[in-house]
Amino acid sequence: MRIALVQFASDVDAAANRRTIATALEDVDGGSVDLVVLPEAAMHDFGSPDHDLAAAAEPLDGPFVTFLAEHARRLGATIVAGMFERTDGLPYNTLVVLSPEGSLVATYRKIHLYDSFGYRESERLRPGEIAPATFTVGDTSVGLMTCYDLRFPELARSLMEGTPTPDVLLVPAAWVAGERKLDHWRTLLSARAVENTVYVAAAAQGGDRYTGHSLVVDPWGSIVDEAHDADAVVRADLDPQVVARSREVNPSLANRRMRST
């Protein structure tokens, strides 16, 4: 499966973000990619702590999802992106998955809100139900996580208990920059890959506020490719035979004696 991770710094102007994404997707050749992943909050940035995300939120049939559907059809690829989903109260931090035909085939509402490092995401957003989400691209099963979810290995493990077992975990993120944060980012992504013998592909926001460093980790824990902090497109071929071989050599999933349920 050919994957492209689009890294950019989103704005609090949703229309401007759509223009930025459209420009970035011009670099993603139609017919040569199966899956395109955009960061968390690609629709609209978090903004300042007092910025009203409820006012910015959109429904699942709103301008952002409609825009993604058009580009999914144009590219003939599945697109995953982060948005703020409108509700009657606080919005959800939601990942949407658009098929190559432009249909909304999956959503994932972020379970673990970022109440950490002095920030309170739960004051502005509501957590999703504990419902791990997967979808398929061709014959490949893909699991979804968002940013802070990365610090909770039980979510990744619960995704691996699905049928079929995912070969890829996606982590769209707006990983806030700071001391040790890049080390945490790389370490946790690699850990999730190694302990689950799975590819992990993380599309992050870049710029001054966020860490950037979108990357792909293989099931052995090796970084396949990685961006820095500027706008970038990271491409990689994810080979199911690499996953199968890693699980043959390191059958840790099969050897487990403790389950998450």
UniProtKB/TrEMBL annotation:
Keyword Heme: no
Start and end residues of each CN hydrolase domain: 1-240
PROSITE patterns membership: CN_HYDROLASE
GO MF entries: hydrolase activity
CDD domains xref list: nitrilase_3
Keyword RNA-binding: no
Key words of the record: Hydrolase
InterPro entries, A to Z: C-N_Hydrolase (IPR003010), C-N_Hydrolase_sf (IPR036526)
Pfam families linked to this entry: CN_hydrolase
Recorded family membership: Belongs to the carbon-nitrogen hydrolase superfamily. NIT1/NIT2 family.
Record-given protein name: Carbon-nitrogen hydrolase family protein
Source organism of this protein record: Aeromicrobium camelliae
